[in-house]
Amino acid sequence: MPSTLSSFLHMVPFLSILVLSLMICSSAQGPPSPGYYLSSKISSVNFDQGFRNLWGAQHQKLDQDSLTIWLDSNSGSGFKSLHSYQSGYFGAAIKLQPGYTAGVITSIYLSNNQDHPGNHDEIDIEFLGTTPDKPYVLQTNVYIRGSGDGNLIGREMKFHLWFDPTQDFHNYAILWKPSEIIFFVDDVPVRRYPRKSDATYPTRPMYVYGSIWDASSWATEDGKYKADYKYQPFIGRYRNFKLQGCTTESPAWCQPPSTSSYSHGSLSPQQYGAMQWVQNNYLVYNYCRDPRRDHTVTPEC
Question: For the chain, what is the total number of helices (H) and then of strands (E)?
Fold first, then answer.
């Protein structure tokens, strides 16, 4: 064997370790800077100023401006905004529970289900509980005029995160504009859902909700792992609430916050770069790329 080839083959394990180390270091550094930090432009609101308990009041505790909600074998808990909105920026800093949380959903989302049962719109940020050896899944979803009776058409994109969401609070937000929906994690855009037609875009007013509940039938690996109440209570912690939008009572000139300082009003090239980094490294499911889905009902794909 030529000496140069022999030397190279001896180096292969070292090179593999080096490449793996560089990948780990790159991931540990997190995404590129988005360059624009929208959450810092929007004032926080106290929970009582913007929300009320919706269900499970006995499983909800407000301590100054930090809200704790929890799920046990008796009940979960949820809250709802005081006003409905036609557009805007909505979010909170959330800290998730470590350990075994399979089957448990912790969420912040927009919906008009109470106004349009069976035919509602929804924009979701949901944390899918997990087993201790696997990371949380952040699920983003959009529903348009459909829920129940077999008519539920989700538009799910799922991500892992580049940090441990159980160790500290991180900011999660939805920016809903007449032209696009953008999902943010710590001001990094992770998904953009553009308005391509009225049939594929939510346009009716929605309230803002948060909740923790048992979704054992599907939440963790399609229901493989269920909520196990020997680990109860399952806790979700929220603070730094953001509610800036146009309500149904707002004047016609009301506009949602700008996505960036970019002159075109949408994501800047730097924000697109950060979003692409996230999708290249942490996207684990995209409904548009799922061959099992009927894409005639999701024409935006």
Answer: 3, 16
Q: Across-strand partners of 66?
A: 63
Beta bridge partners of 60: 69
Listed residue (238, 209, 48, 50) closest to 125, CA to CA:
209
Please give the Cα distance from 299 to 153 (Å, whole number).
12
Res 23: pLDDT? 39
Active site residues: 122, 126
How many Å apart are CA 115 and CA 249, to the nearest integer?
17
pTM greater than the 0.85 cutoff: yes
> CA 248 to CA 250: how far, in whole Å?
6
Q: Which residues contact 222 (CB under 8 A, 6 or more apart)?
A: none
Separation between Cα atoms, residue 125 and residue 173, nearest integer Å: 8
Which residue type sits at 157?
M
- Rounded to an integer, the average pLDDT of 179-194 is 97
CA distances (Å), 298 to each of 187, 201, 205, 208, 218, in order? 28, 11, 22, 25, 21
* 53-99 pLDDT per residue, tens: 999 999 999 998 899 999 999 999 999 999 999 999 999 999 999 99
